[in-house]
Amino acid sequence: MKNLAYLSLLLLFFTGCSDLEEVPEGQLAPDGFFQSPQDVQTVINGAIGSMATEAYWGRKLSLPIMLRSDMVSIGDQGTPGRRQDVNNFTMADDNGMVTALWPRAYLVIGATNEAILAAEGLDFPAEQVNPIKAQAHFFRAYTYYHLVRLFGDIPYLDRPVDNIAEARTISKTSAVDVYQNIISDLLEAKSNLPDVQPTRALPSKATAAAFLASVYLTIGDFSNAYAEAKFVIDNEGTFELELTPDFQDLFNADVQGSLKEPLLNLDFNGFSDGNTGRDYTPALTGIRANEKGNIGGGWSVAVPTIEVYNTWDGRDYRKAVSLDTTGIFDGIVEPFSKFPDFDSRNIQSAYIAKYTRFPGQTSAGNGRGSSLNYALMRYAEVLLIAAEALNETSPGSAEAAGYVNRVRARARNGGAFPEDVVAGLSQDEFRDLIIEERKWELAFEFKRWYDIKRRQLGNEVFGPTGLEPQPNFDPARDYLFPLPNDELERNPNLLPNNSGY
């Protein structure tokens, strides 16, 4: 666990968040560094920047949770095996995606722990310190929320660890306890964060409540999930929230910064030095050799299965925004049925368009280093959480249907489909409807795998009639990732690994 031993020492600078001042990379916090709340803010900004890197959101976290869903598969059969193993449910505990993600996540957690400890030592009025400290509580919770869903029982650190011997004795905390710690952090954040932040790269009170709603939904506490989502909805004016009128704008880097639908953005700024601050999603999802868009085409790695295109009703405006069905090759516009395969490096399917159509400024070929904002939580999702949770406690609710209808009204884009939810649905029928609505509304936004996991849908969606049949899927193993073997070697207290690995 040597990686964890240095968490308290590394206050990192990364170029992910262009409007946030951060600590230079590798610079150790000198004695007396924390003199003011702004010094604490600087460390938090560094933690946020550390998320906007190739080793975290830029590729190592976002790609696995996209591939693990039933909506995205591998297009380029020559892509590294570690990616194919994630997609095909054949990953081992030495998978490079996992071994890179794990230390980066704990690096973020280490910075938040350092910020919390520093804030507690400042002699400043509470009204100056607590809102900044609350950000650290939020980002610690956010990072653990991914880890616990991916790995289950994990080491839970709530203070800096600066002793190698101590680090080698750290044990796993049960997932149940990790979730309770996440909830405690989010409640702390909700109590002290402001209603509105100057940038949506920073969490607000509504952001904390929305993630509380998501966490409660995940653990099956539907009454609290509804209460937190309803709190956000009832105060949408105070929190300056609204559904963006045009769904396309949510994925247009040139206008994302002015939108009121995101509750939290992870910002990329179109500049990177190597893997630092670099966004790889446009490259990973783009069409190989496509001349459209002047980004040099993509890599055809993460591609929707053809069944996603075939089953998505074409009258739904979200389909047109989410999928590209044509490309340009040698100056000729071709439908996806005629995409050249380049020796099995393209497939004939519609491709993800959310991250390649309007990537903004890019700093490298194939759309790498985009200036896209990734909405880690959108107001539309809050409405759907409220609807799903309410259906579990009060089936047949007109209120729950109304939340879905707000989302569907935008998806119509002036047309007639999708229609409003009909009255009289049973609890089971509405439950199925809401999962389907989330599938289309949040398509390719890194949510689908978590829905499959929390609803235990693997046998259904990866079965022979699913969007992406996966004969290797084993529900006794594959709802969790393996703990990385290098961490287990450094600290045997983390053994045993998750079942099946």
From TrEMBL:
Domain SusD-like N-terminal: start-end pairs: 84-217
Record protein name field: RagB/SusD family nutrient uptake outer membrane protein
CC annotations in GO: cell outer membrane
Database matches in InterPro entries: SusD-like_N (IPR033985), SusD_RagB_dom (IPR012944), TPR-like_helical_dom_sf (IPR011990)
Domain RagB/SusD: 349-501
Family according to the record: Belongs to the SusD family.
Top-level taxon of the source organism: Bacteria
Xref: Gene3D superfamilies: 1.25.40.390
Main location, first listed in the record: membrane
Localization per record: Cell outer membrane
Entry annotated with the keyword rRNA-binding: no
Keywords, alphabetical: Cell outer membrane, Membrane, Signal
Organism annotation: Spongiivirga citrea
Pfam families cross-referenced by the UniProt entry: SusD-like_3, SusD_RagB
Coiled coil region boundaries: none
